[in-house]
Each structure stands twice: as C-alpha cells, then as structure tokens.
Amino acid sequence: MKGLADKPSYIIELMEGGVTLEDIIDGHIYEQTLVEKNAFVVGDLGALMRQHVCWQSLVPHLQPYYPVKCNSSPVVIEVLASLGLGFVCANKAEVSLVLEHGVPPENIILSGVCKQLALIKHAAKNNIQQLVCENEAELSKISRLHPGAKLLLQLTTEAHAAETSMAFGSSLKSCRHLLEAAKELGIQVVGVTFHIPSSCQDLPQAYTHALSDARCVFDMGVELGFNMNILDIGGGFTGSEFQLKQVESAVRPLLDTYFPPLSGVQVLAQPGSFYVASAFNLAVNVIGKKVVTRHWDSLAQGEFLSSNAEFLYYMNEGVYGPFNLKLLGNSIAAPSVHKHALCAEEAVYPSSLWGPSLDQLDQVVERCLLPELTVGDWLLFSNMGASGLEECSCLSGSSQLPVYYTVSTSDWYEMLEAGVVLDSTMKNFDMVQYNA
Ligand SMILES: Cc1ncc(COP(=O)(O)O)c(C=O)c1O
Membrane spanning segments where (predicted)? Predict the structure, then answer.
C-alpha cells in the first residue's frame, strides 16, 4: 500500500523491554505537568491487535466489517485495514478515508437509511456496490444513480428501535414490498442487515427474532429470483470476551439452523466498540475542587465512612469535549486516580466530576467514590476508544487534544505474525523508541 500523499506519518512509540502502557502515560503526564497540564489521549495499537486475535479465535465464521463512525482515527483505520477487515461507511469522508488506506471497494458497505445523492454517486464512481437500503424513496434514488448496486435490506429489530427511540429499518412486510419494488426497478438485492445493540437484555430472544426474520427475507428474495448471499448481523459487541461468547452462543445454533455453511451465505458482523473501546485512554487534570455537605441515605453500609461531605471536582475537559457521549445519555465510568493504588482502609468520598464550562449539563460522572483529590491530580479514563474522541476534541474550547499512539514490541511482533507487514502495509507509521 502506498503512503498517503500530503499526510504526515503517524508517530508510534514502541514500548520495549519492560516499558508498559502505564509508563507511557506517566511520561506524558510528566511532560504535560511541565507545560499547560492539558488533557491527552493514549492509543494502544496492541489492544486493537489483541481484540482482533480474540475475534478470530472466538467467532472466525463472522467476517468483521468495522463501522468507521465508531472511531475514525486514520491510525485505527490503517491498522484495521492491514488486518484485513472490511469497513462500513456512512458518509463521503469515511468512504474516502477507507479508500485512501487501500481498502478494496468490495470490502466496503455504504450504510445509512437516507443517503445524500452525492454520496450515492460517489459510491457508484468508486465502485462501491454494497449499499444498505430500508425504504422505497432510497430504493428509487439508488436505482437512478447506482443501478449496479447490490442492496442489503436493513431489517428492523425491537432492541435497535428501542435504543434509538425511532422506527429503524424495515419490517418483514415492508421488506417484501421493497423486494418487489427492487425487482421492478431492476436493482439487485443480495442480503439482509440488522443491528442488536449491546444494551439488549435478552440476546437469545433478540437474535432468534432477527435471524428468523432474516431467513424469511432471504426466502422471499430467492422466490423473486435474487441471489441472496450476505447476512450482516450488525454490531453490539462490548469488547469483553465474555460478552462475545454470550453473543456467539445465542447466534451459533440459529445460524446453523437458518444459514448453515452449506447455504453459501457469507455472514458478516459490524464490531465497532469491540475493536476500539479498550485501545484508548484519556488523561485529564483536576483544575478545581469544592466540598458540599449532603446526606446520603442510599449509601450501602460501610461504603462511606463518617463524614457526609461530597466533593465536586472540575476537570479540564467535559461534555463539550471528549465526554460528549454523556450529552447523548450514555454514562461515563468512574476514572482511576493516577499513581494512586487504593488500599482497603483508605477513606473514599462521594464525588462528582465536572467539565470546565460551569454549565449544569457539564457533569461527566454523577457520583462515584474517590479518595480525596487535590487540584493538579490526574484522572485516567479507560475504554474511551468508542466515544468519538477524535472528532469532539475540537469542540472543547481548548486546542485539539494530543493523541499519542503506542505499541509494545511483543504486540508488534504478534501483528507481524498475523500478516501485518510493516514495510508494505503501514507506510504511514513512523515507529520511534519510547524514551522515558
Ligand atoms: C447499524 C450499526 N452497526 C454497528 C454498530 C456498532 O455497534 P457496536 O459498537 O456496539 O459494536 C452500530 C452502533 O450504533 C450500529 O448502529
């Protein structure tokens, strides 16, 4: 693959010998302490690699297509493209990013239920044929602008509709209608896509409904003469091995029943958070502190020692920056305190964490138990890779958050063994040895 023209290469710090991710974070905290104490992000490419190994070993029959909207850092795209993943793109910028990284158009799916005309034309021009479609208006746009498209019909699932609070995808009845309309317009339909979010409480039931509905759509498609050969079971993988096993055990028997290997149907999934969440850590600085006195009746016995003080800490980033998912109703897990190993007898206090805007919406963590902090302490938020860090940092009012990429030599060698060859595939990486 060629290097990206006009793009800087990305500096990747190599952790050699006994150097750990914590050492890398410590080093950058030290650098920041000498200057403005700005928040920063550390991305561990080894974590991407380990997730890929986990995916390949637990669900090798599910071909991973990474949804770029989950984290569109070019470094992430470069690694995942090198690992051979397919990509799901929702707009022109995402398509261009993925194509620039040498991903073949047949490994790209264009998602989105209502695509701008220019996007459909752009897909046709770049020979991207797999397009998601869920309504008739979309079908007629595609038939005019991209008659060679191969459609995946987006099937509704209750869990997805509940998460987005809107009708998402097409019902079984509407799918028949869409198939007939596609037939009339001379557009090919090749499969079905659906999504069950990780928030779903009853995975076996949700996958049973979705896969039996998908089978019905396949049967209707075959009846109308379509060559139905792609089933996309969407995302909804948190990143934990345990949850992936749970999904696998819900899905496996259903696939064996409805889409056995002999059917020749290619089964895809769209793991987003699974790949990127654990790879990114965010370090923020405590810039202010207040104590208020409250009575917490609801605290469990022993959780909180004697005082009823609550601490409010202000951090140099908030919901108008890297914690923007909070505004969309997601909760942010409590951070750890840098260089602070909590011991059993240490007092912890109810605390809330706020961004710097002094806006009442800018509450990042509503309540957590922390040892007493002082201004200047650093807090570490893990699992931040799927939080839109790369896009939102410019909203924070402060300048762009620095992102430092790192990989350990052992992970790097594992990557090479997995077939990722530095010289030929990662032209845009500049590997430097980490110096403490
Ligand atoms: C259609 C679709 N596919 C895949 C994903 C990625 O999901 P996850 O990050 O939970 O794997 C999403 C997330 O919203 C989605 O809406």
Answer: none
